[in-house]
Amino acid sequence: MNLFLRDYIGIKIHKTDLNLTSLIKSKLEAFNLAPEQNLIMMLLWEKDGLTQNQLGEILNKDKTNIARMASNLEAKGFIKRVCNQCDRRSLELHLTACGKELGKQIIPITEELNEIICKGISKEDLEALERILSKINENVQNGSE
């Protein structure tokens, strides 16, 4: 079976990712927040005080990327990095007052984006999509071993 480039699932997922990232970027631009930085902020708005290592595990990012993004967020005044009391090698990320205020503006935007993205898709289809994406991720991980 010969597939055309447009038929490969990886191409379709990549195109979807580019479109999603572009939409998110356009909505966050006014807040001086990149889409990847927003992922960190979303996690901190959910649970303040996560360590850089925890964020790396959740987002599947290496320590260098997390440290760079944390540094940028700190320079913008959204977070502060604090040494963990129990393990001095571990840095916790805490929201500043500015970062908490930003959440009040960004969270409604991300909820609106989720509604736009999921418009016309049933709960059952979304659950199926989640299962399929999980299976694809599992296949990719198994294929790279």
UniProtKB/TrEMBL annotation:
- Tell me if Transcription is a UniProt keyword of this record: yes
- Keywords tagged on the record: DNA-binding, Transcription, Transcription regulation
Q: Name one Pfam family in it.
A: MarR
Q: Which residues form the HTH marR-type domain?
A: 1-138
Q: Which InterPro entries match?
A: HTH_MarR-typ, Tscrpt_reg_MarR-type_CS, WH-like_DNA-bd_sf, WH_DNA-bd_sf
Q: What is this protein called?
A: MarR family transcriptional regulator
Q: Which species does the entry assign this protein to?
A: Bacillus xiapuensis
